[in-house]
Design brief:
Tetracycline Repressor, domain 2, 2 domains, 78% helix
């Protein structure tokens, strides 16, 4: 009780705390509104004025936090992809069971699509932008990291797959492609995001993929 009273009585500490909360809320609001606009219209089609109008802030406020629209995108991609890529890396920890590891990776991948649909599609859209476009250059390192994480599974499982023959990259492209296309097809049909979290769906995708690489 004494500690709480001291904090309240200390005007400087309380003011600092309130300022920190307000700054966090402002930054989060800008990021959320920008994500929605980028998802709906595409990064290149959205201007700074549209973002600040949507977030109900001023341009100086946006520039204070992010310096530019590109800085905003970089912050958004870094914060979202870092969490996802770290989760993917943990899921890809291979201990001899290829099916189990791919299942964990698939579950992690589909969870992003289920819990953060807008960012999942934005990430894919940015990656397929022209190769010299600033949006592509922003997301490309994170997609490459995802690719290398999944490829490491096939590198370690080479002794289990007699038909590997240096095709780790091919298998990685195939597995990521299957997961991505499944999500796109599912949502295009009006599918519910919770369906992607169904264990049976993950099982089916992984086992169909395994059947393909063993055949």
């Amino acid at each position: 009780m004494e500690k709480s009273t001291a904090v309240i009585e200390n005007g400087t500490d309380l003011t600092s705390l309130v300022d920190k909360i307000e700054k966090t809320n402002n930054k989060s609001t800008i990021l959320q509104n920008a994500l929605h606009l980028f998802y709906c219209k595409g990064y290149d089609a959205v201007g700074v004025q549209e973002i600040v109008d949507s977030a109900k802030i001023s341009k100086p406020t946006l520039y204070y936090y992010f310096k530019s629209k590109l800085g905003l995108l970089q912050n958004l991609v870094e914060s979202k992809c870092r969490v996802f890529n770290d989760s993917l890396w943990r899921a890809a920890d291979f201990h001899g069971d290829l099916v189990f590891t791919l299942t964990e990776v698939a579950r992690t991948y589909l969870s992003l699509a289920a819990h953060d649909k807008e960012f999942f599609f934005l990430m894919i859209h940015l990656y397929y932008a022209p190769c010299n476009n600033e949006s592509h250059l922003t997301v490309q390192p994170y997609i490459s990291e995802q690719f290398n994480t999944i490829k490491s599974i096939f590198d370690k499982a080479e002794y289990q797959l007699g038909n590997m023959h240096g095709r780790q990259e091919q298998f990685t492209v195939g597995f990521m492609g299957v997961l991505t296309q499944y999500v796109i097809y599912h949502y295009e049909r009006g599918g519910d995001s919770n369906y992607l979290l169904n264990g049976g769906v993950v099982y089916s995708i992984v086992h169909q993929f395994m059947h393909g690489i063993y055949s």
